Amino acid sequence: MEKVLDDEERRIKRLGFKSDIARGEVANGKSNRPTGPPFDAILISLNDCCKLTSLSRTAINRWRGLGLFPQAVPLGDKRVAFVRAEVEQWVHDRIAERVQASRKATNSVT
Length: 110
Description:
By secondary structure, the protein is mainly alpha-helical. The protein is built from 5 helices and 3 strands. It has a 3-stranded antiparallel sheet. Strand 2 (73-74) and strand 3 (80-83) form a beta hairpin. The longest helix is centred in the last third of the chain and has 26 residues, at 84-109.
């Protein structure tokens, strides 16, 4: 590993760049991690989305077509994913709508 790092540092310097390789970070596997703010967006597949919502793929695609479901993130030609937090928020919103509807029904009866 040390030889590889030495070779890489020489190559970087030969190209005229400054070497920022920290040997401890490379050894710990931290060198390729993002350095910006924490990344909380977790993508889930359509199948995982079905499990999370208990809806079928067809139902989710219908809701998507009506613009009533979180927008998909395109990953490739025929592959999409969803942001888990957005799907979870959508589920929470459905629960909140149920609570509001039951309150309205209770208030209109009295």
